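Researcher: I'd like a structural prediction for the single chain below. Treat it as a standalone chain; there are no partners to consider.
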Amino acid sequence: MLSACQVSQSTGQTLVWSDEFDYVGAPDVQKWDYDLGDACDLPAGCGWGNDELQYYTTESAYVDGEKLIITLDKSSVLSGTFTSARLATRGKASWKYGTFEIKAKVADCLGCWSAIWMLPETNEYGGWPKSGEIDIMEHVGSDPDTIKASVHCESYNHIKGTHKNGAFKLSTAAEEFHKYKLVWTEDFYETYVNDQRYFRYEKESDDSAVWPFQQNFHLLLNLAYGGNLGGSKGIKPEELPSKLEIDYVRIYQ
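Model: Treating it as a single chain, here is the predicted structure.
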């Protein structure tokens, strides 16, 4: 694992936040919070609004001295239940604009849904999707050679079928670590794989329906199972456990 550079060579921006995962044990509580359970208390209903099958726990995330490991597995307590983890910087750190670099190796089982993404810290324009969502990287086991990035806002979202996204062919996504990057400015945001741009979303106007991305957002890392996207071609519990591994997170402004 490389040490974090204090200045980004590509943008000239200064490092403002990072986690190199160079310690052992639970993720740093000064930097990470957890989403827990199956979200059955949310208005969207169970499965975190996407009919996902996993139950999020704190025990499913661990740092081994070099990387963060989120493990999806069959529950050892409840038959037919799957456990995983969803980490967020919510309440710890959030940002408006910047360059976000995350080096990761995704999970590879059928039904797995690895994600690196961002949500608004305070929902300034209302609940989802009005306040926006930035998907830096999504990968599902049913389409193992493809990485995707998406935008969600009031005008463009998957509920309406109007969401905008980009796709990048990456045959080694589950075999090797790759760098996923978001460059976010006041006028656009772009996503990259290994410094190759594959998606750009531009501000059409100041209307929050198309550009709610003028407020602070926090970062999320999670490994889901099944659901509307991850389970579109079924699941294979016999392939578990599976892991999403994060080498580092670095944020420049």
